[in-house]
Here is the input.
Amino acid sequence: MIIIANGALVTPEGLRRGDIALDGGRIVEVAARIEPGPSDTVEDATGCWVLPGLIDAHTHLQCWTGMDWTADSFETGTRAAACGGTTTIVDYATADRGVTMDEALAEWHRRADGACTANYGFHMAIAEWGDDSPGQMRRMREAGVSSFKTYLAYDHLRLTDAETLRCLEAVRELDAVLCVHCENGDVVDELQRAVLARGITGPEGHPLSRPAEAEADAVSRLLYLASIAGARVNVVHLSTELGLEAVRAARARGQRGVFVETCPQYLTLDDTRYLEEGDDGFAGAKYVMSPPLRKPSDVRALRAAVLAGEVDSIATDHCSFNLHGQKDRGRGDFTRIPNGGPGIEHRPAVMATAFEGRLGPVELARLMSEGPARVFGMWPRKGRLAPGADADVCVWDPRARWTISAATQQQAVDYTPYEGMEAHGRAHLVYVGGVLAARDGAPTGARPGTYVSR
Here is the structure.
């Protein structure tokens, strides 16, 4: 048995001083004091927060995006996640056009099974709709996939509004959740052409072609469609104040089942980053992701929404590409820069640092553990410290001070958008299923990650 002693246990009700015991992959006891036996291992957590294992419910690992393979595999990505304090990821398996959901799920299992340090589950992204799609979705539900994804942008991925409505109806019948990438694809396509025609070819053209209005229009449209269908939806990677206002309008109408996710990059970085030059004049490409980084006013609005409890979860949308050899192939045409950025390793530290003094450990646990566990069908097995819950635990040292750098990260990518940031706090001990997976930002070499059926 492993006993984590003398820590500040983080529960939804608040902090309490105490001990926690792990055995057989489960939390077996939570008490003010647990007396160790002769064969027990005791880890002293004095001065640390003992958090339920953190959950990143939006990742793209070992994935072909239509332009390139992501830099991180399931092996490197989940190892990096665990080193940062994340014990479970939910990755987007994608049924591309001409591929069934059954085939996609089997392929994602092939990529992930046996390779993961952190636990892993899957959403199923749907790129085309047919008469047999509801049946395929039912089989996904039986296989432990309780959430799906559709796109309102990207020509090779997006469904029509009619197809989205039919998908939402199937989601309702399955008591599932639909995650949606909310951008107006027709508007983005047209503005990309217009921006390039103006001679703007560098990374700064990316945010010009994907304005806040394109997100807000799609968020509003999705929520009206969800209202018609009576389905639960998760607005992924919300990035704008206008999109937030569309969410608020739906909630004000009394619409239920509207969940909101945002990401650390939209809470800490703004669109001036696209003007970075670096050594070769192309450093702004590091921030080409969709949706793009936004105006400082959007950052302020989203931070206020996080503090007000309007956001259900913080995820990363980790979709890593190397700046050199991948993103720099888009020189001369920003639309050819692979979209996506890394973050799976640094999300907890960035959030704890950026919201220091504003969000405490209880709030951080709600946003990065309890919230995603509840939205995506993992509660009460995950997201809490209680007897019977999975032995996924992050012992967080809020006193640690260290500098985020690509030179020392586990992510298999040649940069981090948070380069040089002094982080306040670090994952000291990270247990996945009761197995020590990382200590002080370094992996132990264990690969205890298992599939999470939801």
User: Anything to note?
Assistant: The two ends are 27 Å apart (CA to CA). The longest strand covers residues 393-403. The chain has a mean pLDDT of 98.
